[in-house]
Amino acid sequence: MLSTVLRTIAARALFERGDRVIVAASGGPDSMALLHILWELRDRLGLTLEVAGIDHGLRPAAAEELELVRARAEALGLPFIGLAVDVARHRRGAGLQDAARRARLGALATLAAEHGARRVALGHQADDQAETVLFRIVRGTGLAGLQGIPYRRDPFVRPLLDLRRAEILRYLRRRSIPFVQDPSNADLRFARARIRHLHLPALAEENPRVAEALVALAAAARDAKPTRDGGSGPTASATPDAVAALDAAPALSRRVAAVVERLRARGGTAEIDISGGRRVEVSYGAVRVGPRASGRSTATAAAPLLIDRPGTYRWAAGTLDVDVREGTRRRARPAGDDDAAEFDADLLAWPLTARARKSGDRMRPRGGRGSRKLSDLMIDARIARGARAGLPVVTSARGELLFVPGLRPAEIARPTTRTRRLVRIDFEPVNI
What CA–CA distance (Å, rounded) separates 80 from 84? Predict the structure, then answer.
């Protein structure tokens, strides 16, 4: 989990070494996790932390909740600043929660300026992102609104946006970190509470990964680039018509076109080499067909496979069997069996992808102290040079390397006694 936050911070340039950071904490689970995560990473990132808690004057219990934050800040050796804001002054026709948000952000920005803090860290996470995108869709929005909550809008940064609520709660439990629940989060008079407790669960009956889909939609909207004709992306938009056009290309099979459509719907970026010396590039919904880079061997290349549910997936060099089951009992694995791996399903970012290895791939093997180059791991495992390019590399939706046949699985999402759902991945090579 800490590695995920570090990747988010690095990818989004949220902090610079030497930054003074105000950590906004309300006592809720997200902000308490944010406080402790940044405290754990402070030396590595070179940050100076201060903690701020805000009393909106809306609930009598808020003062007691801020005392919890004060006590945790003192236990961590961090200064605490308590602020009171006048929410009524910010109403001006806005809803209560929107007015409270404006008052809170205004007070935090002022405090940061007064204390010479370059950043204010907020505790929004991936489920908040999904709820925000759905909220805006329901109310009506354009491409800009679909971008959801930004990782950074100076001075505010959100290092937890790539973490799910379940991951955060697990982190708090494992470290016995106390927190409180704001009752307004369950008050169905508020639209966001209805989104969280009524609408998203209903949509999850149609698509259990609707939250991930909404987060991917926000990412696609953020990465879309306007064009002169009002479209988006540096290339043609990947509408169904665009995919159909690809499908109709004489040298493009329907199987490859189906893979392109799955990658487009998932979001993110991927490349697929196809016949005729061409390459299909999928980048956050945009699809482009161009010439393949010269000098690259494609004799063992395989199109990426989207793994979004249990089942059997065909790979050029064999098959991948993916099984998800309830319970903590793990299947015994013979010593030296490195063609199978098990993970905590709730700690993985879905959907998974199986792809060919890339230059610069790195993975932290289970039990290892740090990440290593995939090429070095393959050499150490004595995987034949000719077989390496044909092995599938299974990654999470965040691009984390999880499993390569012949190697120990990644440390990420390692099952523990608290694991409730296991995902097992088995690779069965083609018999030659």
Answer: 13
> Do the Cβ atoms of 354 and 426 come closer than 8 Å?
no
Taking the CA atoms of residue 216, residue 221, residue 227 and residue 230 in that order, the dihedral angle to the nearest 10 degrees is: 120
Q: What is the CATH number of the domain that holds 52?
A: 3.40.50.620
348-380 pLDDT per residue, tens: 988 899 999 998 899 999 988 888 999 999 988
Residues 136 and 238 reside in one and the same domain: no
Same domain, 68 and 144: yes
Q: Maximum CA pair distance of the chain? A: 75
How crowded is the C-beta side of 62, counted as CA atoms within 13 Å?
A: 15
For residue 311, what is the enclosing H or E element? strand 311-315
Residue 271: how many CA atoms within 13 Å on its side-chain side? 12
Tell me the pTM: 0.53
State CA 223 to chain mean position distance: 15
213: CB partners within 8 A, 6+ apart:
207
CB atoms inside a 10 Å sphere around CB 86: 12
C-alpha angle 213-238-220 in degrees, rounded to nearest 5:
40
- Asked if the peptide bond before residue 351 counts as cis, ω within 30 degrees of 0, the response is yes
Kindly give the residue spans of alpha helices, DSSP state H, lying in 267-328: none
Rounded to 5 degrees, what angle do the CA atoms 63, 34, 39 make? 105
Task: Report the C-alpha gap between 214 and 204 in whole angstroms.
Answer: 11
- The structure tokens listed for 285 are 């919904």
Q: Which of 2, 267, 225, 31 is nearest to 128 (CA)?
A: 31
Query: Helices (DSSP H) in 225-343: which residue ranges?
Result: 240-248, 254-266
Domain boundary among 223, 252, 271: 223
Q: How far is it, in rounded angstroms, from Cα 236 to Cα 233?
A: 7
Structural domain of 232 = 226-298
Which amino acid appears at position 426 of this protein? D
| pLDDT (tens digit per residue) in 212-255 | 888 888 888 877 644 333 344 433 333 333 444 343 343 445 55
Nearest C-alpha neighbor of 324 from the set 309, 304, 305 = 309
How far is residue 121's CA from residue 128's CA, in Å, rounded to a whole number?
Answer: 15
* Tally of CB atoms within 10 A around 91: 15
